[in-house]
UniProtKB/TrEMBL annotation:
InterPro entries the UniProt entry points to: 6-PGluconate_DH-like_C_sf, NAD(P)-bd_dom_sf, P5C_Rdtase_cat_N, Prephen_DH, TYRAAT1/2, TYRAAT2_C
Species this protein is from: Fraxinus pennsylvanica
Biological-process GO terms, alphabetical: tyrosine biosynthetic process
Keywords: Oxidoreductase
Protein's recorded name: Prephenate/arogenate dehydrogenase domain-containing protein
Residue stretches making up the Prephenate/arogenate dehydrogenase domain: 85-364
Species lineage: Eukaryota, Viridiplantae, Streptophyta, Embryophyta, Tracheophyta
GO MF annotation list: arogenate dehydrogenase (NADP+) activity; prephenate dehydrogenase (NAD+) activity; prephenate dehydrogenase (NADP+) activity
PROSITE patterns listed in its UniProt record: PDH_ADH (PS51176)
Keyword Nucleotide-binding on entry: no
Pfam families according to UniProt: F420_oxidored (PF03807), TYRAAT1_C (PF26213)
Transmembrane segments: none
Amino acid sequence: MISFPLVQSSPTLNPAASATSTATRTFLIPHHYHTHKLAFISSQFSHPADLPRRLNRLRIQAIDAAQSYNYEAQLVNRFSQSTKLKIAIIGFGNFGQFLAKAFIRQGHTVFAHSRSDYSSIAQSLGVAFFFDTHDLCEQHPDVILLCTSIISTESVLKSLPIQRLRRNTLFVDVLSVKEFPKNIFLQHLPSHFDILCSHPMFGPESGKNGWQNLAFVFDKVRIGNEKSRLTRAETFLDIFKNEGCRMVEMTCAEHDKYAAGSQFITHTMGRILEKLQLQGTPVNTKGYETLLNLVDNTASDSFDLYYGLFMYNKNAMEQLERLDLAFEALKKELFGHLHEVLRKQLFGKSEESPRLVLAKLPKKNRTSLLPASTSETETVVNNTLVNNNN
Ligand code: NAP
């Protein structure tokens, strides 16, 4: 990256920056896609005494004159042979920024667009931020990476001016559910675009100390047969491989089944524990520390993300019900034991007493006093009742 004085470019590239009134405004522009454009220094001085300095600053810094006749072709060729990608991140929130850092670290060119203004964060990371998706698509990124919330992804995808992209652009998503983005990609993207669905199974919190051995799930939903397209998909996957991720290829449907039973349960437990407002104590056990970490790992994610895990994974509801049943079963087990203890305390060694007490109760009240799981007890009681009636 090189820092240019005000580069003559689309005014929408960074309107926030162009609104400033400083004498020299700088933009961070990756050198390999703006090298041949004119660069000026812009000045706004209020005092005539500044004129000589102003004229001096209004010189042309670079021109694209006298380039060889096939300069553009050479440039394109050089880029297509390069192992570096131009990646456009759509949705530059928590996770989009987290991924951008790794992309930049590995030498890729990163563009970003988001609903909110992240231009200064982008600039600090070395990312070119675009307020307008038309401008972004006209940069012809190799990869469009959707990092939007699960629930907003379809409307964001539909709003992209995909006609401005190169015909075989690779679309990738990192949503935490997989069948849903696969289906909307297939539904909304013309068949000449490539599709790679992926899910890095970690986030800014769990991946803050590196990605070594963290799982990266992917499904090559539709990649064209040409060598350049196959290579491009591999180059994108290599980013995660290079960081040490455990690469797991599986279908989107398989992912959603596994993820509902693991990730959704993890997030649900984290959110339940968060509601308990657990605090550290002077006698924390290792297990308790694990619970506190679980809250940190899950509660810092947006509720949109958690809600998306539930709404857009058809297996999530079943897991929620299983969780409910498991909790009820556990409570019954505990209360069953409690019932036994209480009975012993109340009646000592006399086993006849509870039966007699129960026998005197109206029939509808008897069952509610019995432990649900002890059908044996029920039989004994019924026998007793029969005996008593006799
Ligand atoms: P998130 O709350 O799931 O998504 C936030 C992003 O979505 C922001 O970029 C936000 O844009 C955008 N967004 C939300 N509503 C929008 C709308 N109505 N229109 C346009 N954009 C909208 O939080 P996240 O953690 O950044 O996750 C992003 C994606 O990565 C999700 O699909 C998530 O499943 C996936 N993922 C996250 C993690 C993780 O640990 N966080 C791990 C793996 C995968 P603005 O900020 O500009 O408003």
